[in-house]
């Protein structure tokens, strides 16, 4: 960890707790800042805030009072989930105060090389694959960021000979100033999170911010199958390594003769890869690129790709029961991810879906429902999902109270050879705090069958 002095005696306001807010507060306190933490949850219900009080950090709980900005703060560190429309954040911006997220702090103190990974879909799988490939090459490597471990915590441990593989959301990337990964990956960009971002334009530019500060010494791995994305990053100073699942890109990663190539070098045959789903091919290409640029050999890459079967909550095989295979794809919080999951299977499928209603319809799923024999819907979008199923001509349509009941119904109506797929196409927040909790409930119920 770099012992930086830039925060010593500086007044910093951390807005929003959860894991990233707690980690940022403790780090800033350690770096000599005068830290105040503000969280909406009342102090009596807020264990995180109480723990920070014990460390001597000032805490203001119960609301986000704009009057806090009168206390002369020089910097705001914002929890990524808090939107920029929040009155306190808007007030800070109007006052000209810098507003960052904790990944900026992680970069400032990190001695390790950083690989940053973003995109609408595939971030977690790509991050995990890169981590495994570098581990297989016997390199010291840490996973961090949106994948679950707070980046500024990991950065305090990682040394100059280590590598941090950091999954980054658009929410995090909107709060960077100097953050600069040695290798950046943009898996893809599709319409998403428009309840947070004002437009697709803002969302796409947030993703592209990952390469904003890169120089000629850095690398950008980017999806050559998306012309709009290629235009968006055309001004990047980094060395570009394009990848494509549809065409040959001699200077990048591509598929030819049912094999994967890196800069014209044969890496692996597609038949040797065990990770299911055509959508994962993009993730595999990205991961190979980052691993090769980081010094991993072909044997390490081959070892991972012939054994890695998937990430928890992302088209994760759970169990076979009475000839029926159950898959947990709780991380599918948008219809694009559910399309990818449905496209991975050809067997008769029972789709478990539904969740938070963001106001969108799901008609784009229609072409992907041909193998769906039954739909079991729950949550705020239950009626929308069942209307979609009716439009698709699905005969068995069921509405249930939640994920747990959906497993019981699926078990009741399934037959040997079927697939039961939890792929909600919606966020979990109407019934569960995270998609992980939703997925764990599914897994536990399946294992009780």
Automatic annotation (TrEMBL):
Pull one GO CC term from this UniProt entry. Answer: cytoplasm
Q: Give its E.C. classification number.
A: 6.3.2.9
Q: What class of enzyme is it?
A: ligase
The secretion signal range is: none
One GO BP: cell division
Residues the record lists as binding ATP: 119-125
Under which pathway is this protein filed?
Cell wall biogenesis; peptidoglycan biosynthesis
Matching entries from InterPro entries are given as: Folylpolyglutamate_synth_CS, Mur-like_cat_sf, Mur_ligase_C, Mur_ligase_C_dom_sf, Mur_ligase_cen, MurD
Give one Pfam hit by family name: Mur_ligase_M
Per UniProt, residues of the Mur ligase central domain are 117-291
Location within or outside the cell: Cytoplasm
* Chief location bin: cytoplasm
> Catalyses which reaction?
UDP-N-acetyl-alpha-D-muramoyl-L-alanine + D-glutamate + ATP = UDP-N-acetyl-alpha-D-muramoyl-L-alanyl-D-glutamate + ADP + phosphate + H(+)
- Highest taxon of the lineage: Bacteria
Write the record's keywords in alphabetical order, separated by commas: ATP-binding, Cell cycle, Cell division, Cell shape, Cell wall biogenesis/degradation, Cytoplasm, Ligase, Nucleotide-binding, Peptidoglycan synthesis
* Location of the Mur ligase C-terminal domain: 313-426
Recall the GO molecular function terms of this protein's record.
ATP binding; tetrahydrofolylpolyglutamate synthase activity; UDP-N-acetylmuramoylalanine-D-glutamate ligase activity
Instruction: Read off the PANTHER family from this record.
Output: UDP-N-ACETYLMURAMOYLALANINE--D-GLUTAMATE LIGASE
Functional note: Cell wall formation. Catalyzes the addition of glutamate to the nucleotide precursor UDP-N-acetylmuramoyl-L-alanine (UMA).
Family to which this protein belongs = Belongs to the MurCDEF family.
Kindly provide the name given to this protein in its UniProt entry: UDP-N-acetylmuramoylalanine--D-glutamate ligase
